Structures are given as structure tokens and as C-alpha cells.
Amino acid sequence: IKPPKLQLCNLSKSLSHMAPSEERAKELLADARRSVGQLKAFDALEPAKEALQIFQAIQDQAGAAQALRPLLAAQIERAELTPDEALKFVKEEAGKIKRSARDGRKTEALMQLVQAEVQLSKADPIKALQMGKEAELFFQRDEDWPALADVLLEVVAPAQLLRGDGKKALDAANLVLDVAQKVKDPEVEGRAWSLVSSSRFACKLEDAAEAGQKALGIFRSLGSKIREAATLLELARGYLGTQDSSAALSAGREAMATARSAGSWSQVGLAVQAVVEAQLQAGNAKDALTEAEDQLTLLSQVTDSSRQKGIAAAMSAVVVATSALQGVEGGLEAVKRFVEKLRAEGNKRGEVCMLHKLATMSPFPDYALNTAQAALEMAKKAGFSQEEKALKKTLTDLYVAEGKIDKAPNRREALLLLQDLAREFEKKDGDKFDDANKNLDGYWNALTQNDIDATMQKIVSRDPPAYLAFLKDHGANAEVPGEKKPATEIQGAGLQGKLGQLKTGPLEHLYVGFRVSGIAYGPRYRCNVLPTAVGGEVMRTVGVLQLQDISDDWERELQYNPSILDCALQAGAATSYYATNP
């Protein structure tokens, strides 16, 4: 095999001094996977390469596919391959599989898993799920429990969380718990409980922290510091989402100490961000800045080259804390100082992150646009896929704000996703329509109302009663021709005694209803997280509002945020939930 920048030819010569051993290959593969799992992908390259060579020499194509996973992870981490190059290579190798061989179908499923992992490294959960679900079906049907656990843990559950579908992530995590009983692997069980915890937090379930504590107990008994720190980080983020700043601060600090003891500097940086956010949530801006600066100083004294990711994250935390304490101008000065420092040190990933931060904070639109474009070009050239995706979102926001939506980087993908939605709408496939609608989260602002009208109305016009009824069944505020509105009795104004009459609607369809009605809300103006109708009352609703992740730090400091003020009126659409599903 010849991946880009890695020669793996002349296998017979390179292995002439030893007899290829399947057991040896499996040991090397286990070492490589262990390194990747411990966030030390740099160390996975040599054992993964040797394992791949042996598997090829003994014509074990399923083993070779397994070895590709840590090998490509190592090459991407070392910047020897960009994710796009890795994906191209995997697709080429998948075309060479001997499907007639005994392990042909399994190898095909494993290559789908490899492709899914690369897609996830590109921060593309939609395409990752497309490949991952196919592999999942095969492994489940074949009762290959270790491989099934892999695809659920590495792709399906994380991808569902990334696309904001906590319920489906929870389903995948619960399935891994069942699989863990079959493979009898405590690490699999621990990772499953950690995912259950994250998924429950995403679903706003009360027992989320309990699942996280179960995962912590398992990882501590195994002595797995990296997994322990990762779980503590997820707990900190979960507590922040529930506004429990005290618990978030405690988990963040514990994650920071655990990661530091394991030499996991990227996790240290993430923990600093969680701690700062917890301090700010508690109203302690001064303490947040002091703690962030202290941790940045400690990270700067580390000589390990892997500290770069941690330093960039810690710098980002300092910028946020500085902005909260000294205002946006103080934050801007800190960003500019960090950009110069990172550039001098050759920390390209950190420089991209700080340039992105600078673009989102600049009060001058042209400067923000130029800065974001420069950062995007750097990210593309270096193969920083996650940073590239985040920058495309920012640039899309900037172009939309300037009325230049056709220049928005996400426009093409948004139009393709809209076509997917229309295709499932035309077939009236409820589950797939829900998924296609969810996939559009984060892309609605790259669409115009005319885009939506031209796509959806063309379908509705073929059979208005049937298609409008379908939209109504899926939460849209649509009037079906000829349908009588149910009579509504006017009752008291209070909520006392009406808890049994509250009906929460499907959030993911609330804004589709607005768009069908002609109102196109962008991501900053979709803050309703729990639109609820009050049964038996005319125009009575309750709404829970929360700023979306896309909102910048300075927006969160506004006393009267325009997004929140507007969204306070949007909950009125929830009155349709009783009319639709009484």
C-alpha cells in the first residue's frame, strides 16, 4: 500500500529477516490503538505501520483495514497527511478489496469504519454517520461485538452528539452498554457510561451526572488517567449547561489536575476553558482571568511539543476572561499579542485559532472578513479540518450580515442539505425527514426564504392537503385546507394546576414552521430550547430561552441581548402543538 507520504512497498524485502506472524501483528495493532486511545497518536505510527506490513504479507485484508485506523490517525496528527488526503487514500484502498475472499464483506465494513473516522476528524458528522451506520448494521448482523463497540464508540454516538441529536446518541451509548456485557471489556463499559452521561446532558435528563460518576469509577479502577480526564471534562461541560457553576468548576479543576499528571496538555487546555467558563458563570471574572493566566504560564514552561494545542486553548480562555473583566478592547489586545507570539513559535494551529478569535471580536466588518479568510487559507493548507469548518461558519455569518449570501462558504452545502430535506419531504418519510431537518442546523443562515419557498412549495403544490398535514404532524405551524380548528375553551391565566396540560413541542421543527410561514430566523435567533404549549388556553405558552453556541463571548455579556428579546416572542408558535397533537 502507498498512502501519500508513506512508502509501504517491497514488503517481502522489508520482512525477509523475520517470518510474518499474525500474533505479532495483533500485538502491534493493540499497541498502536492503545496509543491513539491515550491521545498519543504520535507514538502509534511505527507499530501500526509494521502491523499493516505483516497483515499484507499474510494476505489478511481485514487485519490490514484495522491497522489503517491508527496509522492514518498518527499521520494526520503528525501532519504527514491532511484528512482530505487520508480520505482519498482510503477510498482508493476500499476499491481494491477482494470481496470474494472469506473476509471480503468484513473488510468492506471495516473500510467503511475507517472512512467514517476520517470524516469525523473533518468535523463532518453527517457523512461520518452515513458510513458508520452501514458498518454498524453489518457488525450487528454478524455478531462481531468488538467491531460493533468500535463503530458505536468512535463514530455513531460522537457524531450524533456533534450534530446535536442527544436522543440518538443516547440510543447508541445504551447499545454499547449491552455490547460491553458481551465483550467483557471494562474500558468499553466505562466509555459507554461516559457517552451515556454526555447524551443525557444533551437531553436535559437529571441522571446525567450519575452516569458520568460510574464512568469515572471504572477509569480510576483501570488507572486510565486520560479517560478519567476526558470524562471529567464532559461532566464540567454538562454542569455548565445546567447552570451548576460550582460543580462545573470542581470537575474542571479536577480534570486539569488529572490531565496534567498524565502529561495530556491538550486536555489541560480544554480544562482551563471549562474552569474559566464556570468562574464567569458564577460572576467571578477576576478569578477567571487570574486562573487562566496562571495555567497559561505553567503550560508555557512545558517542553513537550504536544503542548501546542493546550497553549492555544489556554490563550483562548485568557482572551474570554480578559474580555469579561476589561471589555472587548482588552480582549482584542490580548488576541493580537497572542497571534504574534504563536506566529513566532511556529504554532500554526494556535495562530489559526487566535486569528479566528480576532475575526469574531473585531468591530470592523472588513477587517473581520479579511482576518477570517486569512485564517481559513492557513487552516486549509495545514489540514486543520475542524478549524476550517468553524471558520466557514464565521465567514458565512459575515457574508450574510453584509448581504452577500452567494459568497458564503457554507451556501453550497446548505443548498445540498435543503435538497435532501425536500427529497424526504416528497417521500413523506417521517424519520428521514427529521434527520434531514436536523442536518440543516447551523446551515439555515446560508439559505434565503426564496430558496426554501422554491424548494418546498413546489412539492406542496402537488397535493397541498397531504403535504401540509405531513408538515403539521412534524411540528410546523401549517394550516391544512378543509381542516376544522379544534374549539378551545378560555380558562384562567395562571399555570397553577395545569402542569398536566403542558405539551412540549418538537424543538427541531419549531423554526421549520417559521420558515414555511415566511420568517427565516438565523442561528443566533433560534434560542427557544423548550417551547411549551399550555393546554386549554388561547395563546398561552411557556418558553425556555438559551443563547446558541454560535453567539460570541461579547454577546453573552449584553444585558438585553436582541436574540433573547426576539425569541421571547417566538414561543407563541408552540400553541400549534395542542392543535396538532392534542
Structural class: mainly alpha
Overall number of strands: 3
| Overall mean pLDDT | 85
Binned, the helix content reads: 55-70%
Strand order of the largest sheet: 1-2-3
The parts where pLDDT drops under 50 for at least 5 residues are: 1-18, 487-505
User: How large is the share of residues in beta strands?
Assistant: under 5%
Largest sheet: 3 strands, antiparallel
- Radius of gyration from the alpha-carbon trace, in angstroms: 25 Å
Q: What is the overall shape?
A: globular
Question: Helices, strands, pairings?
Answer:
Blueprint: H1 11-14, H2 22-37, H3 45-57, H4 61-77, H5 83-94, H6 104-121, H7 125-142, H8 145-162, H9 166-183, H10 186-202, H11 208-222, H12 225-241, H13 245-262, H14 265-281, H15 285-300, H16 307-326, H17 328-345, H18 348-361, H19 365-382, H20 385-401, H21 411-427, H22 430-439, H23 449-460, H24 464-473, E1 502-504, H25 507-517, E2 532-534, E3 541-542, H26 553-556, H27 562-570, H28 576-580
Notes on the structure:
The longest helix is centred in the middle third of the chain and has 20 residues. A hairpin with a 6-residue loop joins strand 2 and strand 3. The chain has a 3-stranded antiparallel sheet. The protein has 28 helices and 3 strands. It has 582 residues and is mainly alpha-helical. The radius of gyration is 25 Å and the shape is globular. 69% of the residues lie in helices and 1% in strands. Helix 12 runs parallel beside helix 14.
